[in-house]
Amino acid sequence: MVTLEDIKKSEWVKTLIKRADLCLEAIGYTEHGFRHTALVSVNAKKVLKELGYDDRMVELAAIAGYLHDIGNSINRVHHPQNGALLAKDILLEMGMDFEE
After folding, report:
1. Residue 54 class from Cβ within 10 Å (0-12 exposed, 13-18 middle, 19+ buried)?
2. What are the φ/ψ torsions at residue 15 (nearest 5 degrees)?
3. Using CA atoms, how far apart are residues 37 and 88, in angstroms rounded to an integer?
4. Of 60, 46, 45, which Cα lies nearest the Cα of 91?
5. Cβ neighbourhood burial of 35 (10 Å; 0-12, 13-18, 19+)
6. Average pLDDT for consecutive 10-residue bins of the chain (100 residues)?
7. CA-based angle 14:18:19, to the nearest 5?
8. What share of the chain is helix, strand, coil (3-state, %, to 5)?
9. Of 59, 55, 57, 87, nearest to 71 (Cα)?
């Protein structure tokens, strides 16, 4: 099972987060690096836990929160779609179940 800790260790993910942060900085956005991804991840996890979701769904929310802005490494326009495609490849390569 792929976990948030696995995601955090991924060199691919680290590179995409660094690049996304640099791209957004270049166009005047506030910090969107590791602090931002960690904050979104923690909040996503907290919300689902408070809503009573099972542990795996809570972990998936944390993963999604952590990866949510990686598409900014390509372009701010359509970053959600680009990020989803990047995340799909990363997660499948890491062995995540396709259903998740």
Report:
1. exposed
2. -65, -45
3. 17
4. 60
5. exposed
6. 97 96 89 94 98 98 96 88 95 95
7. 115
8. 70, 0, 30
9. 87
55-67 and 34-50 helices, crossing angle to 10°: 150
Cβ distance 76 to 28 under 8 Å?
A: no
Burial of 29 (0-12, 13-18, 19+ CB in 10 A): middle
Q: How many residues does the chain have?
A: 100
Q: Which of 28, 18, 36 is nearest to 72 (CA)?
A: 18
pTM above 0.90, yes or no: yes
- Pull the structure tokens for residue 85: 């495609």
Q: Measured between alpha carbons, how far is residue 51 from residues 46, 48, 54, 57, 85 in Å?
A: 9, 5, 9, 11, 28
Q: Which residues contact 82 (CB under 8 A, 6 or more apart)?
A: 70, 71, 73, 74, 75
